[in-house]
Amino acid sequence: MATTLYLSNDTSARAAGADQLANAWAEECDLQLIRTSSRGAFFLEPLVECDGPAGRLLWPRATPGDLPRIRTGIGGVRLADVPFLAQQQRFVFSRFGQAEPLSLTQYRVQGGWQAADRAAGWSPETIIQEMKASGLRGRGGAAFPVWNKWDIARRTASDQKYVVANADEGDAGTYCDRMIMEGEPFRLIEGMLICAKAIGADCGYIYCRWEYPVAAGTMRVAIAEAERAGVLTVGGRPFRLEVFRGAGSYVCGEETALLSSLEGGRGMVKVRLPYPAVAGLYEKPTVVSNVLTLATVTEILSRGAAWHAALGTERSKGTVALQLGGRIRQPGLIEIPFGSTLREVLERFGGGMADGGRFKAVQVGGPLGSLFPESQLDIPVCFDAFTEAGAVLGHGGIVVFDEQTDMVELARHYMTFTAEESCGTCSPCRIGSVRSRELLERIERGHGTPADLELLADLGETMKVTSLCAHGARGPYPVLTAIEHFGPEFGNRLRNIDT
Amino acid sequence: MTERVRGALAVLLSAHRPEPGRRAHILSVLSAVQEAFGYVPADAVPLIADTLAVTEADVAGVLSYYPDLHTVPRGRHAVRVCLGEACVANRSTALLESLCHVVGADLGRTTSDGRFTIERVYCLGNCAVGPTVMVDEQIYGRVGSEDLRKTLKDYS
């Protein structure tokens, strides 16, 4: 009797060895191998799954030689016995790991596309009212109320409007958008169609970073499939949707720079007003929404706004998709309601430090995020608590560093990135980041002075208050929080002036 | 640029000439040139500007802005080590140093046999299975120095 096994074709599953398994088993008789999206528990990949008499069983970190065991059901674990997965409250990511990404049929059978069908029968005002009631705030990093941005575009009269999915996902440490595009591409399309109905757009773009070639390719195939199936429509009219390939600029994740790039030019940040929702792509009303935001929209229109508003905290409604990485044993994606503390997240899901290392610091929110030492982990994961603490949740990236991390070297690394990626519009960011990098390089080489540390702080403060976008405004934070919490490491590196 | 390359470039560019009254999409054109030739020759800028009816400054401005647009020929295989912080936490900086040492080329340079150009990249979205290296469009995860050495043997 044929055995059916499930194995992910997500890029990270493949990087973990999924394709080697598939190749090793390619000539096996009575074996059907179905490639699916990934559950996002990447420390378990390559993960093989099989349906047994008592339900679904998992074989984590499978090797080619495991096949006989797997066929007879020996050694598999139940989902309920994997705390990393069992302790989450998945909604947006609830179906990940179960279906073939490019099957629209499977997507529908599992409950997908219900939101788009519902939106088709609603007025734009009703859709936006539902978004308002849900309390959804953008997941790209700015956390702006989604209903508000969409409503501005809806109310702006124009012969042409655009929906743009921000699939640049530039924050290192984040990958949930990549997972969505590779694993549930139809969900992104669905979210964009709902947005298009709400604002009155008939054309959309997915601005996808070049570093995600598989995600971009998957979206293109899904778009063609949706078109073929006759569902790529808004209000009965065809919706033109294209994937646009980025060219490696981090700042192009900022919406005005993204639009500059989408128009074919340099990714320069522009002053807002006007908001892109009023005058964006080619000066037309444009909603730029993050991939995860658009995916969450489909969940809200399926389950209802009240479901979303009942989860999370007062001003951070719903669930948050945190992407764990770095020196923990269990890197992967978790979806939980807003409100748990950072410490709870790390303790419940991190699985401890890798290779017996010791926790040193965790960065939340990508390369513009603040560093948190062990003493500062009791902060609730929600937008407002982080803002009050001078930190950002960003796109949900959480990177853990161990005791082998040299904080001076790390600070210099961050500022090098800030300087390289600066678009150049604002002098304090353009020049300040370079000068800051030079100071950190001097300190790293042992030639720094106390005056250098003071100048770093001064430059940082200037960048914070004079920058047009978060790149300059948040750029100093990794360095300044490193100095704040690991001061002696910097102090001990300064050259002895008396010698 | 040789005359042959210039000719091929002119043919490619003529297909990207913007419609009357429409602004040229410089980034797409440069990406198409790089796709066809492996890089954008710096001395191609005047021809590109002329065909697209924009200034050389416009073209040079876009060409210099994006890290993934290159103005020099590269090796047959781009080897990109991820320096995003999740991979850095997992020692990718040391991996990059080791790579440069093993292949005998500095960051940004091409090996003398023309096989590899060593580059860095800031995040491939493989943060949970790092440290990450991308060779051409193939992404490798949990890469150690020895793994990388063995992997590169497969590339000619």
* Overall pLDDT score of chain A: 97
Based on helices, strands and strand pairing, what is the structural class of chain A? Answer: alpha/beta
Of all chain pairs, the largest interface belongs to: A-B, 61 and 44 residues
Tally of domains of chain B: 2
Major sheet attributes of chain B: 4 strands, mixed
Beta-strand proportion of chain B:
5-15%
Helix/strand layout:
The complex is a heterodimer of chains A (499) and B (156).
Chain A: E1 3-8, H1 11-15, H2 18-24, E2 31-36, E3 48-52, E4 55-59, H3 67-71, E5 77-78, H4 83-86, H5 104-109, H6 114-120, H7 124-134, H8 146-155, E6 162-167, H9 176-183, H10 185-199, E7 203-208, H11 213-228, E8 233-234, E9 237-238, E10 240-245, H12 255-262, E11 286-290, H13 291-303, H14 305-309, E12 319-326, E13 332-337, H15 342-349, E14 359-364, E15 371-372, H16 383-388, E16 397-402, H17 407-421, H18 427-444, H19 450-466, H20 470-474, H21 477-485, H22 487-491
Parallel strand pairs in A: 1-2, 6-7, 6-11, 7-10, 12-16
Antiparallel strand pairs in A: 1-3, 3-4, 4-5, 8-9, 12-13, 14-15, 14-16
Helix pairs in contact in A: 6-10, 6-13, 7-8, 7-10, 9-10, 9-11, 10-13, 17-18, 17-21, 18-19
Chain B: H1 3-14, H2 26-37, H3 45-52, H4 56-65, E1 77-82, H5 85-89, H6 92-103, E2 116-121, E3 133-135, E4 138-140, H7 145-153
Parallel strand pairs in B: 1-2
Antiparallel strand pairs in B: 1-3, 3-4
Helix pairs in contact in B: 3-4
